[in-house]
Amino acid sequence: MEERKKGRREWKDGYPPFHSSTLLLFFVGIVFIFLATKAQSQEINVAAVVNPRQIQLDEKARLDLTLSGDTSITHIEAPKFNFLPAFLAVPLHSETTPRLASDKIAVSMAWAYELIPQAIGDFSLPDVRFAYQGTTYFANPGSIRVSGADTYTDVSTRSVHQVEAEVSTAEPYLNAPLTYTFRYLYTAVLPTQASPTPQLPAFPDFLVEELPPLSPQTQRIRGKTFWVQEQVRRLYPQRTGQIVIEPATLILPVPRGRKTLKTKPLKLTVQPLPEVGKPAQFSGAVGEYQISAYVDRSAIEAGRALTLSVQISGRGSMQTVTAPKLPAIPGVVVSGPNLVEDAAPTVRTYAYALVPARSGTLRIPAIAYIYFDPSRAVYATAQTNPIPVSVRPNPNAAAAVDTEAASWWIWIIVFVVGLLGVLVAGFLWYRVRVQKFTDAAVNPTAGTVPVNNGEPKGQKGRRTETETAPPISEARDALMALARNDSTDAATAFANTLAQTLYQYLEDTLGLTQRNIDTARDACMQAGVSEQILEELVDLLTKCDYHRFAPVPLTANERSTLIARAEAVISNIETLLITDN
């Protein structure tokens, strides 16, 4: 009993015999719960993966988020993140994958997002937050590089590849040349066998000239040394208004496939050619041009042809270049122009055939060419220097006269006789017509001429028998006789008669002193004859000289046409003189 009491006292005074084991069990339970919780937390795995890690501004990346473990996962919440303002995140899909792990059903969750870049640069993405059963988990997707559509950085070589395009002017004139330049810049060659492939736009609103490619060169740009390859086109806009040149592309053969770089579009405003200051002789040439002229010989015989070559060269659209108009060259028959094929694409050469009708010094006047200079926005004129040519008498013509003297003399005699007959017949015909006109003026009832103020009516202003007919009547009579006369079938005789009729009329009306084209031109200009009538007269006299000195057969229709033109010229000059008086 005492021992029991003693034992009870010891328990009462001290700790109970089972207290230490209970405390031990308590601590073991706490540790087990802690370790179990820790083990459970270690069984949860989260991941955030971005692919690819280098994109262009017009491309997209993919973000894959997963939460998985070897235990049964329930009450899974969607992950939370915010990549703004660098990226927009668009959900693509989510996926649940059940599986058997340690005799338990484990579930993995996956979320996919599309990342749309909003800016260019290197971005470190913030952590993605996962929440599961009150526990927060974090996964970091890392960094991503966004470059422009015109730039690519190769990860393996750390080389930078870039494209750009530019034009020499954004406000060109219609048909004015501008330069389009495409550049490929790179710091190192890609580790592939294939070469980059440039693709330039089609330029549908332009005439295009492809210029020779330039060899690659090195340039220091933005602190880096780049190799630069250029492709250049010369463009000529074909319409006015707004024109957009589409982007050019470059296909890079990167190790994982290919990458496409793209330039920015270029906007142009094409201006029409100004109307202020536009000369009437402007034919549409746009650019910067020079003009030169030369002949194939400095001396020639009368009646022979020489070649005048006029060359236009410079910088501009040669499709807008037309043949220059030659000024009138008295005593010369001009034919052409004919375009001469040149090897140089920036040169146009036109050939003219000149046939001087008489000997002496032929002076080819300066030839002007008007064009629009877009660099100065003005109409400019290029001009050649006058060219002197010595024209000798044609000895072959004299030899031909000697060899065929008999036939030519017969024709000359026939011509002279015919001409005299025409003149006599014309004079008699004129006298008969004047007499009829005088008789018609007599009073038919009285048979006498009425008296007016002491003078017979109609007597005042009437020509006497010694007075000649008016010049217009004489010229028309001569033209009518020329049209009826069969003895002028030869071109030489016909042209000589027609020319002498025109010269005779000019002598009678304008006081022409010498029978040549230059003197006739001066007399008409002093009398105030219009330029149109003067050009027609000069052309008729030039054709007459041509057929006189270089005889070419004339058909009946051609002779009738020349006579009608001569009568029209004479009538126009007569009308002008009457109006002036």
Q: Would you give an account of this structure?
A:
The chain is built from 9 helices and 31 strands. With 581 residues, it is an alpha+beta fold. The strands form 10 sheets. Strands 10, 11, 12, 14, 15 and 16 form a 6-stranded antiparallel sheet that branches.
The major sheet is characterized as:
6 strands, antiparallel
Shape from CA axes? rod-shaped
The helix tally amounts to 9
Average of pLDDT: 80
How far apart, in Å, are the first and last alpha carbons? 179 Å
Give Rg in angstroms.
52 Å
Could you say which structural class the secondary elements and strand pairing correspond to? alpha+beta
Question: What would a concise description of this structure say?
Answer:
This protein is an alpha+beta fold. The chain contains nine helices and 31 strands. The longest helix is centred in the C-terminal third of the chain and has 36 residues, at 405-440.
